[in-house]
Here is the input.
Amino acid sequence: MSKIWTVAVVGCGIGRRHIATGYAKHPDKFRVLALCDLDEARLEAVGNEFAVPRRTTSFDDVLRMDDIDIIDVSTPPALHVPQSVAALAAGKHVVCEKPLAGSLADADRLIAAEATARGRLMPVFQYRFGDGLQKARRVIDQGLAGRAYLATVETAWSRTADYYAVPWRGRWDTELGGVVVSHAIHSHDLLTWLMGPIASVFARMATRVNPIESEDCAVASLVMANGALASLSATLGSHKEISRLRLCFEHVTFESCLEPYAPGDEPWEIVPATSEMAGRIERALAGCTPVPAGYEGLFQRYHAALESGGTLPVTLADARRSLELITALYDSAERGQPITLPIGPQHSKYRSWRPLSTPANARPPDQ
Here is the structure.
């Protein structure tokens, strides 16, 4: 019989969603024993909703709980690194919401901390889970897709003043960035998960939708390491919300559903180049086991990895790759020129991707 792993969730905003659509879906695998949040009313509401026995406003209290296996860090982004480092030092496994960190230097600090810790750290990229996306990944992994040609990735969401009424949102010091950090990061992760690493980036950014410190519109042109081309567009000013990926390969074209917060779900359109390829793809997908979407699928795979000691469903290397793209996007938008990847410690943005000044093409929304 497999172990039921005990969890403390820190941050009852997105943390509530982790419980409702993740941990609570697997009562035979996880038990949430503790909650931590500075908002006492929210703490009590979420605690009562899920019958969580312990509630505290002190993160240090959580670190001292000897019977907790996993600390789930779902706090505002600026707290992710110090809280994850402290949790690892306390001998816990760690689940950390996106963005993992605010710089590649901090990502490397977490990688180093995990290397000497008893526990492991799993970043969160729940959009990887859904039947449509998993089928596309299987076709690619089976070597059926052939050479990658071109991809387009759209993140067209809506965020109004009400969203930014939360004090830490829209601020560099606490949210760590705008649409490319807190929103499009998911679909951009899916791009590299399906098409591999990025070789170079050219980007433009602007602040046009809300009067915030960071960008809320962005476009970018990418060259992938395999030679394919990709374009990214992201806005928080779309009156119809969609997330869409279209990936063109030598033998097949994939197009995701348009569901903004579950782009991995069916239906994905898989268009083979020939009838012979259609048959090969059909055989490759025959008998595929349905995959729970979102946090439910992520935490199902997470439990299996904890039990086996195998590779986590999302790794620190995955998260670092996403932060490397973010770093390149900001650097390119600031410099007005392409940025070559990979990015190492000698790069000027290694310790912070925050622009030195407002990009020249940014414009407040009231102009």
